[in-house]
Amino acid sequence: MNIPLIMFLAFVGLTLLITFWAAKKNTGASAYFAAGRSITGWQNGLAVAGDYMSAASFLGISGMIYVAGYDGFMYSVGFLVAYITVLLIVAEPLRNAGKYTMADLLAYRLKPRPVRALASLSTLVVSTFYMIAQMVGAGAIIKQLIGINFESAVIGVGVLMLVYVVFGGMLATTWVQIIKALLLMVGAIMLSYLVLQFHHFSFTEFFNAVAHADYGGSAEPKNLMEPGLKFGVAVAGPWGPIDLISLCLGLVLGTAGLPHILVRFYTVPDAKTARSSVVWAMAIIGAFYIMTTLFGFGAATIIEKALLTTDGKLDVNMVAPILAKVLGGEFFFAFISAVAFATILAVVAGLTMSASASFAHDFYSNVIHHGKANRPGQEIRVARITAFCVGAASIAFAIYLGPTVNAAFLVGLAFSVAASANLPVIVLSVFWKRFNTSGAVVGLAVGLVASIVLILLSPSGIYGKEGAPFPLSNPGIVSIPIGFIAAWLGTILTPRDLEAEAKFAELKVRAHTGLGSEKATAH
Amino acid sequence: MSEKSSVNWAEIEAKPEFRALLAKKKAFIVPVFVFCMFYYLALPVLVGYCPEMMKTKVWGEVNVAYVFALSQFIVAWVVAFLYVRVAAKWDKSAAALIHGH
Fold first, then answer.
1. Does B61 touch chain A (CB under 8 A)?
2. Which helix (H) or strand (E) holds B57?
3. What is the ipTM of this complex?
4. Does the domain formed by A3-222+255-415 have CATH 3.90.740.10?
């Protein structure tokens, strides 16, 4: 029996125990969907960080930096700065005025049925993109570690994730995230330490090596410190710099529109705790991303490309685990792989949680049943069934896409969709009195469609690199303004909604003072 | 949502203390957010359009681009810290105006 497998099973066992503990405490909707609002600031900070430091961050970014150096680091920077948008604009109003989902805030003063239906659709789309990225990462790891094929690995992850979500709800997924975040930080610190040790603890030597990175002697030295290896004009043509700006715009605005992150702010007792949890998350995430330079760049000075190549293709998501193997032996490889796997499992659980909660609470309860009280537990039952379906769908997509697509890239797309569809509507709903239901519906729909269509028409879409009509791989710079303009036009071109405007006073007071917000439940 | 019947929202919204609170929030959040966005987006813009300047080395092999990227982390953390401090004052104002009515 190999060590990685034992470590996996140990971690999986631990988290299953947590799930069963949570299952016993899961009485009622507030417990299932929002962990009873009992999570403290630092715990939620860790959970948010955990949610965020997903396969994309750990595996994907390491891979990006390994291949493209500085340009890969741009993902790290964007992922962190994005929390300024969350902190200053979104987190507190959301916690003050909503209940379980992002749509609660949107539907506050607008007609609930159309808004919730579209918000639910948007949540499902963003979550699916994000989830596929994780599944791809998971499949790659397990394939390497246990030797089973990619398809079986993906199915295995999916099944485990479903157990977490179906039985454990938000409480279980929160605690899994917290533990996972701690393990990931330990793993990252150890990996960074080993990289520095390889370079005799000299930053001068480290940066010198990075500037002449030769992939363990297997390739021509490349200066990875210099920008431009991926988005520079020489490599990507005249659209390269614009693609980079587009990516950055999507990253910095997208987090504030990611449903599975936003929903974390409902698990704390009040807005002030939501605020402190963002700050905690920023501290942890920031430290983590700075370390990605160490092990991302470092890997390029240490690992030969051959170690990462299977069947002639470079397995870009495996840089971090292979680095662990080269520097720390089988045991460390097992630990890092187990941590990466745990990362993915936790994120996938969180995503499924928010997507299924959205469907059950927004679509089923509010759109189909007009918010009328249903039989106790029915909303939860629907959420569980949805979790199952969402899980199955993402497994299918991941298998279809295969293991060579970079996880960070897929996640970047999810961010662009979130920034184009969700963020404009969230911001305008809280800050613009005139904003009405038509504006929200049009904004969500157009933002969604615009970003997805542009992705399909991009070089990474259905026409491939050569025939793509849209020259950018990241649609943000076009789709985000389109989302805002659509929401604006949808509002001013339609009659004023006097009811919504009348309710604006209430929303304003709630959002800025916390009066009347959903309180924590004892459990 | 359900408890709204007992609270006169319009009355609170019309209070000068509430409006003053909102004005203070705006006075911090808007300029700070705009600054952060400009500072952050300057990074891809400069990297894309002034590559030679960004490749200039400042310490060994460490170049302007890398230092600028690291500075984004510092700016974000400083802004978060400042926000938490000022928001604590806003909390007090909000509490005072709720309980005063």
1. yes
2. strand B57-59
3. 0.91
4. no
